[in-house]
Design brief:
Layout (H helix, E strand, L loop, with lengths): L23 E6 L3 H12 L4 E7 L2 H11 L3 E4 L5 H14 L4 E6 L4 H10 L3 E4 L4 H9 L16
Parallel strand pairs: 1-2, 1-3, 3-4, 4-5
């Protein structure tokens, strides 16, 4: 049985446009180096996504987002949570077009809503499913894949 962690596209095939569009450029923001390494490894198996930076804090992330012209930031909200929410708000203010996605083990309605209110575009729970990340990075509207990007009905 193949784990969802090891099958980046759920069914083992990339989306039709994965080879025609340039890879979406992602900066990972997580205070723990081992989680950044694992997440980078998971995303590395997806040709439609490219990790262009890893950061332990907001300051380093801002530099990388700017220098690498990132399309998205994947934020671990537990920095602790108040710092994660502040990071989301600061990213939203500084980079209005950046896709800001939260990925966390902390998966409750209050945290999801706080992330949305801070300016996040979507929320993914760990363990990360790369296919869900790709859908949220590529989403152009408030809904990704027909469901709320925060995992709740609207």
């Amino acid at each position: 049985m193949t784990s969802a962690l090891l099958a980046p596209f759920g069914e083992g095939t990339p989306p039709d446009d994965a080879h025609t569009q340039p890879a979406r450029r992602i900066v990972l923001i997580d205070p723990r180096s081992e989680r950044r390494a694992v997440t980078r490894l998971l995303i590395g198996g997806c040709p439609a996504l490219a990790v262009v930076g890893v950061a332990a804090d907001l300051g380093a992330a801002v530099v990388q987002i700017r220098s690498e012209q990132a399309d998205a930031a994947l934020v671990e909200i537990q920095m602790p949570v108040t710092e994660g929410l502040a990071a989301i708000a600061a990213l939203r203010e500084g980079f209005p077009d950046l896709r800001i996605l939260v990925c966390s083990f902390r998966d409750d309605a209050a945290t999801r809503e706080a992330a949305r209110e801070a300016g996040a575009d979507g929320f993914l729970k760990k363990p990360l499913e790369v296919s869900a990340l790709l859908r949220l990075v590529d989403a152009s509207g408030p809904e990704a894949g027909g469901s709320s990007p925060f995992g709740v009905s609207r």
